[in-house]
Amino acid sequence: MPACARATSMTWKSAGKPRTTAVEPVVRNDGMRPEARLEAAIEILDRLETAQSSLEDLMRGYFRERRYAGSGDRRAIGATVYGVLRRRGELDWRLSKAKCRCDNRLRVFFLTTLEHGPGLAEGPHGPELPDEAEREALSAAVLCAMETAPAWARLNYPAWLEGEIAESLGASHEAELRALCEGRAATDLRANTLKTDRDRLAGMLAEEGFATEPIALAPHALRLTADGRADQSRAFGQGLFEIQDAGSQFVAQLTGARQGQWIADICAGAGGKALAMAADMDNRGQIFAIDVDAGRLRRLAARAERAGVRNIQTRRQPAEAGWPDDWRGRMDAVLVDAPCSGSGTWRRQPELRWRMTAEGLARNAVRQGAMLDAAADLVKPGGRLVYITCSFLAAENEKPVTDFLVRHADFSVTPWREAAAAAGVTDLPDADGAHDFLRLTPLKHGVDGFFAAVMTRGLS
Ligand SMILES: C[S@@+](CC[C@H](N)C(=O)[O-])C[C@H]1O[C@@H](n2cnc3c(N)ncnc32)[C@H](O)[C@@H]1O
């Protein structure tokens, strides 16, 4: 009998033919049987283990090939997939305490049992049902109390990260992690000031049935107050807004981008922050948007077109490959929105926590340092270097920045409050004033987790 089983095992039923179970869909438009949905969830979770793409892209591709799956099916399968990823620490700990193998099939059965009770439908398109030993282990795992579980299991992150997390987040790490793992991320919009303003946009969206509220953190930010696909609105098609987390909007302002400046955004991606800076510059001056990923740069170009942005030029190259001579030492500000673990976005992308490895984190740190060195070359005397990640881990935040400052005595830290005030930002988030670096968190600010460090190049 597995270690966790103290009481009588639960009753497991499997029917020879499809039957109604607790996982029966509550919405219509459902072409798939409940057991087929479970099989699909397992397949997606298995694919995710070797995929390079995000869960969102993987699921989009999966359902593109399965047109028979209706919206109800997609929603139910998504709920199981996200549920397993959000609770994987807990599921694995309880399964292993019950001496049960941890694979996606058993995780899905266990989650379904916890959420709906121990009944599973059998059918031609369903997964292989648990055998007797597995049923016994699952029953034991259900009885496993979480009170004695370690933090990584209770808060659902990889066990090896425990020390790093405690060091990075300090005393509030449990509360921060809870907000990151359990909270639901909102959808924020940035009013495109090249075409409209926040109030007018809110009015137009209301007419289209999208209720929003302003967010104090960023002057052009609105938050959707109910679920909805704002990117399918007329206002979106007209380029009146971008979808962008308010935290991302706030940190983009730290470059202090103004009309007529030259700004390099050396990890520009699809241009979330570049487009925000272009609007702050009122299309005057120049943004050089660099990235290694041609697809993202194409998306940036399409977004710029829709937004009426005309002062961004894209360039595909690795940041470390060196710069044209006429860029070096010329930029008013350089933004390094560095590739990182994405730990600050775990609410939206729960798969990221299980993709992290200690080796990957160390590799990121080397790459982040190299990017900062490359960026330094571009900054003019008196200009700004802004380093941003969407991570809460010191290994990819404070560490690369402090190492950079040791290598580059001509740069010094500008406290983020000072940088924000100089950029004309009046609504400052409530963050620990003792720190020169900014940390935004879901717990304290209700946005994705961001880190920002502002450095200024000396004049001589
Ligand atoms: C955090 S994302 C950027 C997000 C973007 N700035 C935004 O606001 O939407 C990091 C980007 O760095 C890019 N990247 C990765 N390695 C790079 C390199 N060696 N040189 C330049 N860009 C790189 C990735 O393709 C990715 O688009």
TrEMBL record:
It comes from the Bacteria. InterPro entries: MeTrfase_RsmB-F_NOP2_cat (IPR049560), MeTrfase_RsmB-F_NOP2_dom (IPR001678), RCMT (IPR023267), RsmB-like_ferredoxin (IPR054728), SAM-dependent_MTases_sf (IPR029063). S-adenosyl-L-methionine binds at residues 291, 337. Gene3D superfamilies: Sun protein, domain 3, Vaccinia Virus protein VP39. Residues 177-458 form the SAM-dependent MTase RsmB/NOP-type domain. Keywords: Methyltransferase, RNA-binding, S-adenosyl-L-methionine, Transferase. The active site is at residue 390. Belongs to the class I-like SAM-binding methyltransferase superfamily. RsmB/NOP family. This is SAM-dependent MTase RsmB/NOP-type domain-containing protein. It comes from Minwuia thermotolerans.
